[in-house]
Structures are given as structure tokens and as C-alpha cells.
């Protein structure tokens, strides 16, 4: 600082800079607690450090014994400033610090040649040329907070908050927790799957967990998963397991993947390799919708969006490498095949489709104009009819299902409701009819007791799938896993550098 400083505007800001001290001589006047704090960072710079003080704390003695600095146990002398590039005036004696500051001024005539840069005591806003900020390291980055010497306590508070938050974001990684049909039968999946209301409660629980930066919930007929950006905190992961009620199934029937393993898992899910129907593509739309719900709720952000985008690219490459030429079938294809074999007069029949999600819409699109009439039942929002045979479709609320059951020849249930939509109590409405009921839902949308009670044919998704699996699904899955892991290497390497 110079004599004109007192005439400058009080709101003049300081100039942030990082100094290269390697090979330069740094003098520290004082050997108390403040000196110890300064030395913690000075020792990392490669500077030649000289500490001058009548007495020193044990920590500084240990550093001197280790050869990391030169300790001179005596009072400060003006000659100590000779050849010094920087001086830290951090004595416990304020008068001593003022003397060091005064002797370091260009006009002091101390014979030191070029005056050293002076760092004053932390409690003094005008104690030298340099004001050391509150700082911390984050990998190869250094983050510093300064207040121009006006409020060091505020700087430390901001530093502490920033450090905690940045460490949380930097150390956070993609994590997936869930269970799917590969290890659970239909009954077990029904126990862990959720209806929309329970999903909302789960989202509220996740939003309250501070270490979880972003998340979305994927709930389909094949799987129940949470994708999140979170740190490696086992307590948080266990809380999520309990929030999903996955603690009710054996640990080997659920999974927790993190980092690259989680990203590979997401890529394989999107490729259809982990689907009930190997290679099906409906899951792509389901993941996109789950991510969009997270965005709308402000729980999913740019990192999850980036992971999903990159996983979609890898999923496409996996499909090209493993599934090209392989006949893959979707749920709607299985329905169409079953109807072609068992309902030759479909053009004279009425089909009731319950559910307007990705599977329900695909079923309606696949049916086209084959049935005489399609009744399409929705739960909360009427579905758009663009691109569909709208002249054959009548959209109704799910509350009207009991009313139209008696006139339906084929009933296809593709809902995500927790309880069956078609129950045994509806048997009288179907009695005496040759109705075919196809249940594509998990949890089951049709009470299994309906078949014996009403004498109708009830076929669940698992039965349809078992008749159409490729001959070597395990081998195809292994090839898909190898392909996804290889393809994921480049992206995860970039992610480690730029999270």
C-alpha cells in the first residue's frame, strides 16, 4: 500500500492474483497460531521459508527439524528484510507487526533494495500490500474468497459453505438403485412397484436428502429404479433403499450401481438388453418421460440429462453391434400376434385398452383400424389421437371401465396402478362371453381370480414373453454388456475430467 491509499475511494476493490513462490525467499515474522495457518499453504509453494520469532509452537519446531523451513529463535531485526521477496507479519504482538510493515515501505530506507511484498495480520485490513483470502483446494483447482480486508469472518464462512457444496458436487457420481424382472418374479415386482401417489412420496423423501443433487424415478412394468447424482455416502443409499421399500427383498435381488457401472447399466436398459422382451425399445420413451417429470419437478438437471443423452448414444451402438438382424419384439407385437392367432373376427369386435402410457399408446397404434372399435381408458389425462385411427377410437375415463366391460370382446390392460383394475367382482359383467384379457401390467392389472370366476381367458405379459424369447438371451446379454462397457470408456474418462 502507498500513502495515496487513504485518498482513494473506499469502495476500491482488490486485484485477485495467484503468486508463484518457488525458489523465492519468504520471511515469516511470528511463530504462533496465525503463522501455522500461513505455513500450511506456504509449504506447498516450494518457497525458501525463514521463520523469525523469540519462541515457536511445537508444530513449527517439527517443520524446522524436518528441514522444511529455517527457524531463528530471536527477535525480529530490520536486517532480516534483506533479500526477502515476501514477508508475513503475523506476530502475536501488534506493535511488532506494525514495525515490520513500516520497515518494508519503499521510503523506509532499510537498505533491503527492492521492498518485499507484505502480508499483514488477518485481523488488520490495511496491514500490507497483500490480503490473503480464505482459500481451499479442490483437486488441481484453488478456490479463494476475499472481502478486500473488510470482513475476514464472512470470507471464512463463505469458504466453508462453498467447500462443502463444491466437494458434494465434485465427488458426486451417477448412482442407480433398483430391482427388475431379471431377479424378481411378478409377485415380488408387485411388492416393490409403486403407483403415482407413492412415487410422489418417494420423490419428496429424495428431495429432502441433501447429498442427492439430482434424481428421477423410473417405474415400468419391468423395473423400479432411482437414478441420482449423489456422493458415496452409504447411509444416503440405504435411506433410498428403504424409501423404495427395496429392503423388503433379499439384498441379492436388488442392485446399487455407481459411477461407470451405473452408466453402463443405464445404457443397457436403454438398449433393451435388460428388458423383459430382449431388445424392446419402449423403454427409451419411458426413460425420457421419467427424466422429463424430474425436470418439471426440478429434481433432474443438466448432469442427469447428459448421462441419459450419452447412454442413448451408446445404447444405439449396442443395438447395432449385437441386435442387428435379430428379430426383437415389443409388447404391442406380442398382443398383435396373439390376436391374429385367436381373434380372426377382430374387425367385428370391440377392444378395450386401459392405460395411456408408452405401452398403452403403442398397443393402440399397433391395433390400427383392425378392430371395429377401440375404447381407450385414461387415468388422469386424455391422450392425444394424432397419427391414430381416430375414427375407430373412443376415449373414456377409467371410471367408466365397469360400464363398458360387458360390451368388450378383447381387454388389454397396460396400466401402472398398484391394484388390479379388472377384479373378480367384475366377473358377472364378463360371464358367458368369449372375452380375451391380455394383462401387460406389473403390478398385475387383472386379478388372476377373474379367469375362474368369469370363465374368460386371461393371459399375463410373462406368458406372452415366454413364448417369444430369443434362444440365447443370456449370451446376447453378455455381448451387450461387453459392448456397453467398451463404448462407455471414452465418456466416463471425459466425465472424470469434467464432471
Describe the protein in words:
By secondary structure, the chain is of the alpha/beta class. Helices cover 39% and strands 18% of the residues. It is built from 17 helices and 17 strands. The chain has a six-stranded parallel β-sheet. Helix 1 (33-42) links the parallel strand 1 and strand 2 (48-53). Helix 8 (260-271) crosses helix 17, helix 9 (282-296) packs antiparallel against helix 10 (302-323) and helix 11 packs parallel to helix 12.
SSE map:
Blueprint: E1 25-29, H1 33-42, E2 48-53, H2 58-65, E3 70-73, E4 86-89, H3 94-103, E5 117-119, E6 134-138, E7 141-145, H4 152-171, E8 173-180, H5 186-192, H6 196-207, E9 212-219, E10 223-230, H7 234-243, E11 255-258, H8 260-271, H9 282-296, H10 302-323, H11 331-342, E12 350-354, H12 358-367, E13 373-378, E14 393-397, H13 401-405, E15 410-413, H14 427-430, E16 436-439, H15 450-454, E17 457-460, H16 461-466, H17 473-497
Parallel strand pairs: 1-2, 1-4, 2-3, 4-5, 12-13, 12-15, 13-14, 15-16, 16-17
Antiparallel strand pairs: 6-7, 8-10, 8-11, 9-10
Helix pairs in contact: 8-10, 8-17, 9-10, 10-17, 11-12
Please give a quick description of this structure.
This protein has helices spanning 33-42, 58-65, 94-103, 152-171, 186-192, 196-207, 234-243, 260-271, 282-296, 302-323, 331-342, 358-367, 401-405, 427-430, 450-454, 461-466, 473-497, and strands at residues 25-29, 48-53, 70-73, 86-89, 117-119, 134-138, 141-145, 173-180, 212-219, 223-230, 255-258, 350-354, 373-378, 393-397, 410-413, 436-439, 457-460. It has 499 residues and is of the alpha/beta class.
Amino acid at each position: 500500500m502507498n500513502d495515496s491509499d487513504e485518498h482513494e475511494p473506499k469502495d476500491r476493490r482488490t486485484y485477485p492474483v495467484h503468486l508463484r513462490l518457488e525458489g523465492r525467499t519468504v520471511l515469516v515474522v511470528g511463530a504462533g497460531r496465525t503463522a501455522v495457518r500461513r505455513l500450511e499453504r506456504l509449504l506447498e509453494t516450494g518457497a525458501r521459508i525463514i521463520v523469525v520469532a523469540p519462541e515457536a509452537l511445537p508444530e513449527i519446531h517439527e517443520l524446522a527439524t524436518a528441514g522444511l523451513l529455517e527457524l531463528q529463535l530471536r527477535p525480529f531485526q530490520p536486517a532480516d528484510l534483506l533479500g526477502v521477496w515476501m514477508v508475513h507479519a503475523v506476530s502475536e504482538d501488534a506493535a511488532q507487526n506494525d514495525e515490520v510493515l513500516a520497515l518494508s515501505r519503499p521510503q523506509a530506507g532499510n537498505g533491503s533494495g527492492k521492498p518485499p511484498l507484505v502480508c499483514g495480520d488477518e485481523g488488520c485490513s490495511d496491514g500490507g500490500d497483500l490480503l490473503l483470502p480464505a482459500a481451499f483446494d479442490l483437486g488441481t483447482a484453488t478456490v479463494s474468497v476475499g472481502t478486500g480486508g473488510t470482513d475476514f469472518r464472512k470470507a471464512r464462512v463463505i469458504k466453508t459453505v462453498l467447500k462443502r457444496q463444491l466437494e458434494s458436487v465434485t465427488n458426486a457420481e451417477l448412482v442407480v438403485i433398483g430391482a427388475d424382472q431379471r431377479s424378481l418374479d411378478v409377485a415380488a415386482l408387485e411388492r416393490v412397484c409403486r403407483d403415482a401417489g407413492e412415487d410422489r412420496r418417494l420423490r419428496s423423501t429424495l428431495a429432502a436428502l441433501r447429498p442427492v443433487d439430482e434424481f428421477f424415478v423410473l417405474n415400468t412394468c419391468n423395473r423400479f429404479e432411482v437414478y441420482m447424482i449423489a456422493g458415496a455416502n452409504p447411509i444416503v443409499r440405504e435411506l433410498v433403499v428403504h424409501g423404495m421399500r427395496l429392503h423388503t427383498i433379499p439384498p441379492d435381488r436388488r442392485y446399487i450401481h455407481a459411477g461407470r457401472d451405473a452408466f453402463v447399466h443405464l445404457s443397457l436398459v436403454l438398449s433393451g438388453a435388460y428388458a423383459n422382451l430382449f431388445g424392446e425399445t419402449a423403454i427409451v420413451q419411458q426413460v425420457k418421460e421419467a427424466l422429463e417429470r424430474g425436470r418439471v419437478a426440478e429434481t433432474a438437471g443438466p448432469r442427469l440429462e447428459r448421462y441419459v443423452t450419452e447412454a442413448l448414444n451408446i445404447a444405439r451402438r449396442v443395438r447395432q453391434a449385437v441386435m442387428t438382424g435379430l428379430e426383437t419384439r415389443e409388447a404391442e407385437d406380442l398382443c398383435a400376434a396373439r390376436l391374429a392367432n385367436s381373434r380372426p373376427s377382430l374387425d367385428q369386435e370391440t377392444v378395450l385398452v386401459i392405460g395411456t402410457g408408452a405401452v398403452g399408446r403403442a398397443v393402440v397404434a399397433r391395433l390400427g383400424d383392425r378392430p371395429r372399435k377401440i375404447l381407450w381408458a385414461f387415468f388422469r389425462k386424455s391422450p392425444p389421437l394424432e397419427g391414430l385411427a381416430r375414427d375407430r377410437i373412443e376415449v373414456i375415463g377409467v371410471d367408466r371401465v365397469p360400464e363398458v366391460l360387458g360390451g368388450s370382446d378383447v381387454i388389454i390392460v397396460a396400466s401402472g396402478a398398484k391394484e388390479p383394475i379388472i377384479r373378480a367382482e367384475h366377473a358377472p359383467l364378463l360371464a358367458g362371453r368369449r372375452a380375451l384379457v391380455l394383462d401387460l401390467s406389473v403390478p398385475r392389472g387383472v386379478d388372476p381370480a377373474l379367469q375362474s370366476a368369469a370363465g374368460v381367458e386371461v393371459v399375463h405379459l410373462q406368458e406372452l414373453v415366454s413364448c417369444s424369447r430369443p434362444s440365447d438371451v443370456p449370451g446376447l446379454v453378455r455381448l451387450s454388456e461387453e459392448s456397453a462397457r467398451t463404448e462407455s470408456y471414452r465418456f466416463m474418462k471425459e466425465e472424470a475430467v469434467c464432471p
